[in-house]
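queue> holo job accepted (magnesium ion)
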Amino acid sequence: MNVIPRDQHCISRKHISDGALKVMSRLRSQGHQAYLVGGAVRDLLLGGHPKDFDIATDATPEDVHGLFRNSRIIGRRFRIVHVRFGREIIEVTTFRGHHDNGDEDSPVKSGNHSRQSDKGLLLRDNVYGTLEEDAVRRDLSVNALYYDSGNFEVFDQVGGLSDLENRLIRVIGDPAQRYREDPVRMLRVVRFAARLGFDIENRTARAIPACAHLLGEIPPARLFDEFLKLFLSGHAAKTLEELLRYDLLGYLFDETGHILHRDDYALALVRAAMANTDQRIAQDKPVTPAFLLAALLWPVVKHTATHLENQGEPPMVAMHNAAQQTIGEACQQVSIPRRFSQPMREIWEFQLRLQRRQGKKSAELVDHRRFRAAYDFLLLREQAGEDTGGLGQWWTQFQELPMEERLQQAPTDGDKVGGRRRRRPRKRRNNAEK
Ligand code: ATP
Ligand code: MG
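queue> job finished
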């Protein structure tokens, strides 16, 4: 174990949240060990600001829960304790030990055990152990550094510090075995590589192709959580490229994975959606998963809708049915909550409604609560190179018109409308007066 004293690293208590410091000092005062671990230590050593603080301890979840009134035990695969301070949640995990490959008679603390499926997948991992054992159970070397807020030392059991210096993502232990235990680690590898701008170490990368199919066994709900982390952390564009490079996107969105390999427009559209999302996050603007999902699945829904139209369904009906089918199929892989799938559907259906440029109808559309997202989506399609006949520009100018002028826009032939052309209102009024 490599121990780095306080004067040889840059972590300062100043950058650790009060909640995390409180939890650690309380645990220590009760005779327990308590360390800051995971992403927070990694990000502090890189000079960044961690977004959340995870703590590892030798106290059991019950011990921790007993010490903090503002806490609750969660999880089944891993039992962890959430300690709440206002809006901040500190995640406290008990050191994990070596597992016993399902041999439940092994001498572990009572009631705590791990279970593996016949394929090596870890179903439960609640065997408790020491810091040394805990370190090798973590996923990446750069995520397995521990900071002791009592004596300010950093512990490095698995070479995480030198990997941080060399900017390398390395799975701890034998990568194939670690991916078999938990295939989501492959997604974590590409996510952290993209987010930190690190390279993926050779063995870590080489084991991915043979293990990738194991992602098919991950429950859709967990993949949805992972989807959010992959694409809504401000590095979606880079993450997408890594997922494509390692051929992993198809394990989240099967059809999209296929289409992006052969359709440049679809690829440009998804890339543009990712870049826009990153930009909005960088500017502290709100982002919704619905918009990104709408983009990721647009090539699929469009393809299906065209197919249904060719079979004789009217465009709106075809789009409606295609949306239903596309979302249904996607949810088999990544369970998209209804609060996101509903807006996705509306964004798609809106694309057809936006094709009609007509005064009163158009004015109503602008006031629709989904208009903004649908209009942004239209611009995205154009950004990706789709020829919509100037539709985006028409809607941009239309929104700038005063209400009175909006209502007077010509019903069709929209390209000429621009902003200024009036529909001879006076003459009509005169006619009406007669
Ligand atoms: P972030 O900044 O995204 O929160 P993080 O490294 O803290 O990054 P978490 O998902 O919060 O990531 O996980 C906390 C820690 O738990 C990780 O740093 C890692 O040590 C460990 N961990 C998380 N997921 C796994 C996994 N699937 N297998 C092994 N260890 C894991
Ligand atoms: Mg974290």
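queue> The CA atoms of residues 49 and 228 lie 20 Å apart.
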